[in-house]
Amino acid sequence: MGLLTIGAFARAARLSAKTLRRYDEQGLLRPVQVDPFTGYRYYDPAQLEHARLVAWLRRIGMPLARIRSVCALHKADPDAAARDIRAYWARVEAETAARRDLADFLVDRLSDAAARKDRPMRRLGTPLGLRYAALSDRGLVRDTNQDSVYAGPRLLAVADGYGGGGAQAGGAAIDALRPLESASAESGDLLNLLADAVQLAHRAVRRLPDSGTTLTALLWTGSRLGLVHIGDTRAYLLRDGRIFRITHDHTVVQAMIDDGGLTEDEARSHPQRAMLLKALDGADSPAEPDLHLHDAEAGDRYLLCSDGLFTVVPESELRRVAANVADPEQAVRELVVLANEAGGPDNVGCVVADVVEL
Ligand code: MG
Prior knowledge:
Blueprint: E1 4-5, H1 6-13, H2 17-25, E2 33-34, E3 41-43, H3 48-59, H4 64-76, H5 78-110, H6 112-116, E4 128-137, E5 147-151, E6 155-163, H7 166-177, H8 187-206, E7 211-213, E8 215-220, E9 224-230, E10 234-239, E11 242-245, H9 252-258, H10 264-268, E12 290-295, E13 301-305, H11 307-310, H12 315-324, H13 328-341, E14 348-357
The chain binds magnesium ion.
Magnesium ion (MG) binds at residues 160, 306-308, 346-347.
């Protein structure tokens, strides 16, 4: 069969000529021939499958650049193209799920009457403070405890050290943050203070050969919390009975989850689950930490923990303990018990802190 005019090709592909012109402009599907005088486009019937593939990928909302790469893969290795589409869709679903959770959260926040009528209204100007507890445990398998924890009136921190000097590395990172307990900071300075403290922590950890640490910490100003995070220790927020993870693991498996190549369930048993993409270690310059500000509300509860807890205790259990055990001291004890009942394969460190009216 000879070449088809754009009109004939459009009918055969069930697309409009306008769409085909757009695909041409976007580099998604080039006509095999363009008349140099009239500008008419001609297509090869063999391009029909390509045209349909582009149209379907557009319909699932795939971005143009990714469509180009899927089409290129499709020619060379259809299986690889199929895997890429699957990975893309898994990511869409993960993002949709995250957006759905956030939407649920916002609906609850904004439709306040029914959902929040039981919560006492805070008197305007009532000062807030933290009620806190921290606990770390060797677990049942490791010889030493390389998790470090700290909780004070303004600072909450968890560090999971590794390597020969892992325990010192985690301790040194937290020690570098400790002066923040007495530093006076308005919200505007908060993140800079934390960033500077991480530089100091890096300097301290660098002196320890073949060692490193994660660090997740919150600094309280009286109404807001500054969060600094590097590695795979985590911070969760419990608000209105729901639990939200507010840190993003800097790990190989989290990157694979983000890319749609792995599910959260698969990640838990993945052999490389402990491999960090970022940590405080001997590198010449410190890895960039994540820094965020959080507005606190009376009744909020924060949970900071190392992977020795969340790898073996499901999030639903973390939520159950965090929601039901009022006393922070008792809550950290129960969380450590849960990790050890699940085999205690790693050190466990956790901090629980409540935002309370003073
Ligand atoms: Mg650990």
